[in-house]
Design brief:
The protein has one domain. The protein contains 11 helices and 12 strands. The protein is globular. A hairpin with a 5-residue loop joins strand 7 and strand 8. Pfam families: Cas_Cas7.
């Protein structure tokens, strides 16, 4: 295992992530309250939710590694929890069985009648992602589309689809090593390697015909020397400067000097080593 791979997949220390996304003729994250148009802040900047990104990572991990993804089409969290309760299993069993719940999971406040076990074990997510907000204010494009659904007469219905011409967003995330230790190191180096690879390749699972080109341009990984970290996430984010050129629709990324106890790694430079150590298997596609 290369030294860089060892650094970015060390489950015993905190890692922060600064993710730069780029999209062209796309809808990064539709808003159901606005006709599924791109989500927009009052200042006209576009944003994508962390749940949207988590789902893409989880679905890509299912594609690349054959993992069990709880948030799969047709799965119902309440039904699955009830089955685990019926089989006398615990939240820890559910966490261990499903790849995504293991890392991104949330407090199981509804698991069974007795909440004490859940509260005591503290099944909070080890990975946390935060909204990705656009640096530029893109133009919105609307066009009429033919829906796959039909009306009462059996005819296909027409609707509108909203797209963004070009967008660069910046978002953050973190890996909490303290919670990982509290949960007896349920996240290991292999899981972290697969998570980073799936983050890099998430566009493989994107519904391209609906969402368009929406890809990870870069992820800067800030690895701390301690489980609780050596700097605040906001300071880590400020180390990553993104410059955009609206006329040429290009961007560049500059890194500042990391504080003591923090190592900065570009995922684009680490991905080859990660894929060598944790190679995706085409057997999972069969």
């Amino acid at each position: 295992m290369s030294n860089t791979t060892t650094i970015v997949t060390n489950p015993d220390v905190r890692h922060d992530y600064v993710m730069i996304m780029e999209g062209r003729i796309c809808n990064p994250n539709g808003d159901p309250n606005a006709g599924n148009a791109p989500r927009q802040l009052p200042n006209s900047h576009i944003y994508a939710t962390p749940t949207s990104m988590s789902n893409r990572i989880n679905q890509t991990a299912e594609l690349l590694y054959g993992v069990k993804n709880l948030y799969h089409s047709g799965n119902n969290l309440d039904d699955i929890q009830q089955k685990y309760i019926k089989d006398k299993k615990t939240p820890a069993d559910l966490m261990g069985d499903f790849w995504d719940r293991r890392g991104n999971g949330g407090l199981f406040a509804s698991f069974g009648k007795d909440k004490k076990e859940v509260i005591d074990t503290g099944f909070r997510g080890i990975y946390r992602l935060y909204p990705s907000v656009s640096i530029n204010i893109p133009s919105l494009i609307e066009q009429a589309v033919t829906s796959a659904t039909t009306n009462s007469k059996g005819n296909r219905t027409m609707g509108n689809a909203s797209y963004i011409d070009w967008i660069i967003t910046k978002g953050t995330g973190t890996f909490n090593a303290c919670i990982n230790k509290q949960r007896n190191n349920i996240i290991d180096a292999e899981y972290m390697g697969q998570w980073l690879i799936s983050l890099w390749h998430h566009a493989m699972q994107t519904a391209s015909l609906q969402r368009g080109e929406w890809d990870l341009a870069e992820c800067v990984i800030a690895t701390h020397s301690t489980p609780y970290g050596n700097a605040q996430l906001s300071k880590i984010s400020n180390l990553v400067s993104v410059n955009v050129d609206e006329q040429t629709q290009t961007h560049s990324i500059d890194l500042g000097t990391a504080p003591e106890g923090v190592t900065l790694t570009r995922l684009s430079e680490a991905i080859a080593g990660l894929q060598t150590q944790y190679p995706p298997s085409v057997n999972n596609l069969t």
